[in-house]
Design goal:
single chain; 181 residues; alpha+beta; Arc Repressor Mutant, subunit A; Glutaredoxin; 2 domains; 39% helix; elongated; binds FE2/S2 (inorganic) cluster
Length: 181
């Protein structure tokens, strides 16, 4: 059976397509929604988004492999992304990574056995002035300290938003920053 978007994603895409002057502009939201609906951007899921945006699968794959919020392999339901680029590294990102690894019992790049949380290192999150920076799903945390890791993990296990984060503008085109989105 051919892959489809969920009804909610379909509605979101149709309203975006009505606003964008060029169909291809919907490619990134189409990829994000396809990932949300189908778990990760496999070849078939990329093809779904490519058709939606009127671009070739090669173009869609190029975009899908460029952004850290898009994943071509299996991911956890929640993503903890720690910036490990130079400013954050100098400000202690390695200690943040170590604490998350300890709490989650996984290595960076891994996913917890229950599939709930993935921990990944990402490039600059564009808040170098307040490093280290961490992104949890679609929320940003600046000047993040290892002592804050426990509260983040506890909140995700409890189905809550970790406190203190700021939503990423345009983060989730359908569900805002809801936990479990
Ligand atoms: S280097 Fe981490 S936010 Fe820029």
């Amino acid at each position: 059976m051919a892959l489809e978007y969920s009804q909610e994603s379909r509605q979101a895409l149709e309203s975006m397509k009505a606003e964008y002057p060029e169909l291809r502009s919907v490619l990134i939201p189409a990829l994000k929604l396809a990932q949300q609906d189908h778990g990760s951007l496999t070849k078939e899921v990329i093809a779904l988004a490519a058709a939606e945006a009127g671009v070739t699968e090669a173009v869609a794959a190029g975009v899908a492999t460029f952004y850290h919020n898009l994943h071509t392999g299996p991911i956890g339901r929640h993503m903890i992304m720690v910036c490990t680029t130079i400013s954050c590294q100098l400000a202690g990102a390695d200690a943040v990574v170590s604490r998350f690894e300890e709490l989650l019992d996984i290595s960076i790049g891994g996913t917890t056995g229950d599939g709930l949380i993935s921990l990944i290192a990402v490039e600059c999150l564009a808040c170098c002035g307040n490093s280290p920076a961490v992104q949890v799903d679609y929320d940003y945390f600046e000047s993040f300290q290892p002592e804050q890791c426990d509260a983040v993990v506890e909140a995700l296990h409890a189905g809550r938003h970790p406190e203190g984060g700021a939503g990423v503008p345009g983060g989730n085109p359908v569900k805002g920053t809801e936990v479990g989105a």
